[in-house]
Each structure stands twice: as structure tokens, then as C-alpha cells.
Structure to design on (223 residues):
């Protein structure tokens, strides 16, 4: 059964890779092109989009154009929901791939060594994943693979990923919709989002909500 699941996953990733290669990797950066493709899928558009979103995470392809296109085609709310479903599934698959294959195989595949807090406690890892999902400058995909190489439970990883990515995903989905109806508003929203998520770590350190910063630092010192 495990081999069958692994084969299905390999076929799925291979199919998505072939589609990306045939259309050119640059197509993943073209918002108008992505939007046109999704609109041409008809009733199957939500399902196929979710599959593409999963593949984007596993294959470490750019996610922002896809999230913005989803907001344009499906609307800000549904676009955000579909993006969250696909991204969460992709993150879990990446996590399980790393957990199954181990550090050596993942390093060869990604062509880089991911050092991700091997000795951290479960709660500490949950905090780290949650904060990483809030910050757009941290690679979503590398964090997923890196977490799979730790002792973190898949339940904690799934919850931290889900809660952490919701704000930014919906912001991008709304911004994508407004690109066509109000470009100026989209630009303003994008700037606000970037400023907000750069300031989140500073706010957590200074305000220490629910003692979060103190708990993280105590656990780091205990290691």
C-alpha cells in the first residue's frame, strides 16, 4: 500500500512538472496567463487549481501569482479558501516526503542542506512554524521540508501552517481581484501587507502577547 501511494504521488508530481515544463516556468509568474488558463477549465477549475497549488508547494514553484489569480477568478473569499486547501495539502505532502526520505535524500533532491532546529521541543517548533508562515520573506516550501526532518508531529505542523498562512493568503487573494478593478488599491494593499508582516516579529518581541516571546526564549535557553 505504501509503495502504491508513493507511485501515485510520483506520477502526480511528474505530471505537474511536465505541465510546468511544457508551458515554460515563466508561465507561473504571468498573472494574466494563469488567470486565463483557470477560467478556461470550467466547472473543474476549483479542483484542478487546488492540484496545481499542491504541485506548486511540492515543486517549490512561485505561489504568489497563483494565489492572486485565484482571487481574480473565484473571488477573494473562495479564491483564498481554495489556495489554503491546496497549500495546506502541499505542505503536508512536503513534510511527509522529508519524513519518509530522510535528510540525505532531501538534500540531494533540493540541492541544499536544510538545518531546521533538530533539537527543538514540539511546542517550540509549533511557534517557529506559525511565525514562519506569517512572514512572506521566509520560503514556505523549505520550511515544510525542513519541518519534516525534525521530531515535530504532523498534527502540530498542520495546525501551525494553517493558522499562520490564513492572513497573508486572503490578503493576496483580495489583492489579485483588485488588480483588474482597482490597481491603485491593490498596490496600496500590497504595501500594507508587506509592512505588516515585517513588523510582526518586532511586535511579538516588544508586546509579548500571551507570553509567547518569553516561552520561546525560555525553551531556547533550556536547549
Amino acid at each position: 500500500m505504501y509503495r502504491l501511494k508513493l507511485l501515485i504521488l510520483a506520477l502526480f508530481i511528474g505530471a505537474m512538472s511536465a505541465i510546468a515544463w511544457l508551458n515554460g516556468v515563466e508561465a507561473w509568474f504571468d498573472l494574466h496567463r494563469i488567470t486565463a488558463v483557470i477560467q478556461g477549465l470550467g466547472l473543474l477549475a476549483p479542483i484542478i487549481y487546488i492540484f496545481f497549488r499542491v504541485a506548486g508547494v511540492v515543486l517549490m514553484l512561485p505561489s504568489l501569482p497563483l494565489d492572486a489569480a485565484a482571487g481574480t477568478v473565484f473571488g477573494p473569499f473562495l479564491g483564498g479558501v481554495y489556495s489554503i486547501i491546496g497549500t495546506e495539502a502541499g505542505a503536508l505532502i512536503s513534510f511527509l516526503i522529508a519524513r519518509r526520505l530522510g535528510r540525505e535524500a532531501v538534500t540531494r533532491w533540493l540541492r541544499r542542506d536544510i538545518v531546521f532546529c533538530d533539537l527543538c521541543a514540539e511546542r517550540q517548533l509549533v511557534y517557529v512554524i506559525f511565525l514562519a508562515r506569517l512572514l512572506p520573506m521566509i520560503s514556505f516550501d523549505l520550511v515544510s521540508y525542513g519541518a519534516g526532518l525534525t521530531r515535530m508531529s504532523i498534527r502540530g505542523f498542520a495546525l501551525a501552517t494553517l493558522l499562520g498562512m490564513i492572513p497573508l493568503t486572503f490578503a493576496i487573494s483580495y489583492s489579485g481581484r483588485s488588480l483588474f478593478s482597482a490597481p491603485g488599491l491593490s498596490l496600496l494593499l500590497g504595501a500594507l501587507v508587506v509592512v505588516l508582516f515585517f513588523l510582526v516579529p518586532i511586535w511579538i518581541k516588544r508586546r509579548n502577547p500571551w507570553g509567547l516571546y518569553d516561552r520561546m526564549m525560555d525553551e531556547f535557553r533550556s536547549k
In short: DSSP finds ten helices and no strands in the chain. Residues 52 and 163 are 21 Å apart (CA to CA).
